Amino acid sequence: MNGQLEFYNVDEAETMATGEHFMCTDIEWDPTGRYVATVVTSVHQMENGFNVWAWNGNLLYRCALLSSLDGGG
After folding, report:
1. Fewer CB within a 10 Å sphere, N or C end of the chain?
2. Per-residue pLDDT at 23 exceeds 90
């Protein structure tokens, strides 16, 4: 993945929003379909962390996690 996100309304056939989570390795929707999490999990990357997005593409929360290589534990 290159980290580019597109939130698309299939009923209206239009893009609602775009976003980016650099180096994103995983994407998971919650069971209700209201939220999506994008995650960077890699042993060799310094950009580990996660973002939580609303269904419409609004970024709700960003959490950067420190790796053991940069003093984070």
Report:
1. C
2. no
Contact present, 15 and 8 (Cβ < 8 Å): yes
Q: Is there a domain that residue 36 lies in?
A: yes
51, exposed or middle or buried, with CB in 10 Å at 0-12, 13-18, 19+?
buried
pTM: 0.78
Based on the structure, what is the number of domains in the chain? Answer: 1
**Cα gap 21→41, rounded to integer Å:** 12
Range of the domain at 29: 4-68
Q: Is 33 helix (H, G, I), strand (E, B) or coil?
A: coil
Does any domain span residue 8?
Answer: yes
Is 73 inside a domain boundary? no
Query: Which tens digits make up the pLDDT trace of 26-48?
Result: 999 999 999 999 998 876 656 78
